[in-house]
Hints:
Shape: globular
Mean pLDDT: 84
Low-confidence stretches: none
Number of strands: 0
Number of helices: 12
Order of helices and strands: HHHHHHHHHHHH
Distance between the termini: 40 Å
Largest sheet: none
Helix content: over 70%
Amino acid sequence: MRANSIVKKAFVKSLPVMAAYVILGMGFGILMNDRGYGPLWSIACSVFIFAGSMQYVTAELLATAASPFYAAIMTLMVNARHLFYGISMIGKYRDRGAFKPYLIFGLTDETYSLLCDDRDYPAKKEEADLYCFLVTLFDHSYWVLGTALGAILGTLLYFDSTGIDFSMTALFVTVFVEQWLTSKEQRSALIGVGASVVCLLVFGESVFLIPTMLLITLLLSLSYKKRGEANV
């Protein structure tokens, strides 16, 4: 497969993410401007942080001059989910060579949904490496582009930023629904929803995330163990 064919394949694969990331990135740029930070700050956050929902939280942390310790704990709580689906990508990313560090940095919920199924990968390893890199790079560039547009528009026009931070929640719901409709196995989704509801009721909305992740890990581990024993 020629290099330009791989570029085209990766670009087409990433198009659904572009539709979301440009809009969500614009929301972040507008929110940062509303908090008193100009386009360069917004773009730098999207280039070097690239953490989706955590960037929306970052805008509030910067505006309130939060302590580094509080910021670290908040980052752990918001992005703890990356630990769990990131583990499933270890095998796919193990031998990606020079691309590996960027692939790890650029792994987001949406990029994961595009790359978790290796049936779309080109047959040759070198081409598969480039394909993974380009999908990740395209997704990252869409977010940066949206951020730049939002930051510039925020300086030219007045926007009421109330409710903009809910856009990431809406995206997560969309990704969940898409996975639910396309997957034949809903056990993991049901475990995730059930554990979230239970921990929310028990621990409250301010601290339920980490207990939820621990409970999901335990339940999924038991589920896979039983499935493995059943297949023996």
